[in-house]
Design brief:
- By secondary structure, this protein is α/β, with parallel strands linked by helices.
- It has one domain: Thiamin diphosphate (ThDP)-binding fold, Pyr/PP domains (Rossmann fold).
- 37% of the residues lie in helices and 15% in strands.
- β1, α3 and β2 form a beta-alpha-beta unit.
- α2 crosses α8.
- 47% of the residues are buried.
């Protein structure tokens, strides 16, 4: 049933403003294929403020509400309450926000909505910087990565914020990480999230060719390398509180291979790459220490 929707239905169309190889645009297309036409999309300031198209046009055939940077989760709460008042509880309310509007500027509204158990799906498409405004560092930027505000690379003392752990502490109805490089896993998680009620969160790795300094044709390759290296493990929080790894790489690669595939890490020294490998290994063991499928 789900596969028929995947192959036949389209809710995102040509004419959008995304860069070639944009992980956020490809992910939106497949997300809407999974969620269907009864979806309202809440978009705070982000790349998708532009990608959706210049007013009054849009590349999506579902309703979009563009909202201020810090307010996505609060606005989604309001939209859900309005739909309930109209008796339209079958409509999926989805926030589609970047890492800047999730990890940083929108974190307070996100935490409040999660604490209130608001009934909507929040998808953070994480391209690991403020890409829309010129590739500035965010708290989702990994150690050593070049940005226009950290031309020598983000200092190693400031690691990427653990958004998975933050949301997990709010006891959400559903929590997972996902990547468009693994579409079957992504679709399965969207199906589970849409079937639940309450606050749901998907942390989606979103490759950005200009920001990550890769060729657009390598976008999906690099997305898969993030999973193979353990830099971005594909996880799911189960109802019993355990964290399960949903995709266990059969051919894991060193973190070094993932870093060298992107020019944004070219200033990193070998000892820094080794330190990051150790950090990734320790973090993944910590994340999965109670899970059934450790890395």
């Amino acid at each position: 049933m789900l596969w028929n929707v995947v192959t036949r239905m389209e809710y995102m169309h040509s004419g959008h403003m995304a860069c070639p190889g944009c992980g956020a645009s490809l992910s939106m297309r497949h997300t809407l294929k999974a969620l269907g036409e009864d979806t309202v999309v809440i978009i705070p300031a982000s790349c998708w403020s532009i990608i959706a198209g210049i007013f009054p046009t849009t590349a999506l055939s579902v309703p979009i509400l563009h909202v201020p940077f810090a307010t996505a989760a609060a606005c989604a709460s309001g939209v859900r309450r309005a739909l309930i008042a109209q008796g339209r509880e079958n409509v999926t309310v989805m926030v589609w926000a970047g890492d800047g509007g999730t990890f940083d500027i929108g974190l307070q509204a996100l935490s409040g909505a999660a604490d209130r158990k608001e009934d909507f799906l929040y998808v953070c498409y994480d391209n690991e910087a403020y890409m829309n405004t010129g590739i500035q560092q965010s708290s989702a930027t990994p150690c050593g990565a070049w940005t226009s505000t950290t031309p020598g690379g983000k200092e190693m003392d400031f690691s990427k914020k653990d958004i998975f752990g933050i949301i997990k502490s709010h006891h959400p109805a559903y929590l997972a990480t996902a990547s468009i490089g693994h579409p079957e896993d992504f679709y399965a998680k969207l199906a589970k999230a849409s079937a639940k009620k309450g606050f749901r969160f998907i942390h989606l790795l979103s490759v950005c060719p200009p920001g990550w300094r890769i060729d657009s044709q390598d976008a999906l390759k690099v997305a898969r390398m993030a999973v193979k290296s353990g830099v971005f493990p594909l996880l799911e929080l189960e109802e019993n509180g355990e964290v399960k790894q949903t995709v266990v790489p059969k051919d894991p690669i060193p973190v070094n291979d993932y870093l060298r595939a992107q020019k944004r890490f070219r200033e990193m020294r070998p000892e820094e790459m080794e330190a990051l490998q150790d950090e990734v290994d320790k973090r993944n063991r910590r994340l999965l220490q109670s899970g059934r499928n450790p890395v």
